[in-house]
Design a protein that fits this description.
Elements lengths: L10 H7 L11 E6 L5 E7 L19 H22 L6 E12 L8 E12 L2 E10 L2 E13 L3
Antiparallel strand pairs: 1-2, 2-4, 3-6, 4-5, 5-6
């Protein structure tokens, strides 16, 4: 991808950046990002009753699993890393989840919710990025975590 990445990124472009596919594609759209003065990105995941995890989590009270909220935030970090590398004229590569710290869950996420994820790159060291992440629904915080991702690229 050598062309300029628009500020809003749709699902087609996200699929070019991340290897995840249904049912593990957990970022539907990037609403905005900035690279200066700090690197941050805002993305959404639309949570529908058709999600494959709801029949088992839980049959009479569907709740999005916390680990999938963390995974959605980690994928948003991957998109931010991809966009950052593209701005430096480098290829995207793959990003792996290495560590999760300080994960907290404040309320449940249910069908019909729109998960708004905000991720900020705290620092980059030897191709590993540390991100501060927060997920909200209707302006109310549902989860926070510090996520460490390691990158592997072919360039």
């Amino acid at each position: 991808m050598t062309d300029i990445i628009p500020e809003t990124i749709d699902i087609g472009r996200i699929m070019e950046m991340l290897p995840h596919r249904y049912p593990f594609q957990l970022v539907d759209r990037v609403l905005s990002y900035e690279l200066e003065p700090e690197r941050k990105l805002t993305a959404i995941k639309n949570v529908t009753i058709n999600e494959p995890f709801f029949p088992g989590h839980f049959p009479d009270n569907p709740i999005m699993p916390g680990v999938l909220i963390i995974e959605a935030m980690a994928q948003a970090c991957g998109v931010l890393a991809f966009v950052s590398r593209a701005a430096e004229n480098k290829q995207g590569g793959l990003y792996y989840l290495v560590k999760i710290d300080k994960a907290r869950f404040n309320r449940t996420v249910v069908p019909g919710d729109q998960l708004l994820m905000e991720v900020r790159q705290q620092r980059m060291m030897r191709n590993m990025g540390l991100y501060q992440c927060e997920a909200r629904v209707d302006g109310e915080r549902v989860a926070t975590a510090e996520i460490l991702c390691a990158g592997r690229s072919d360039s």
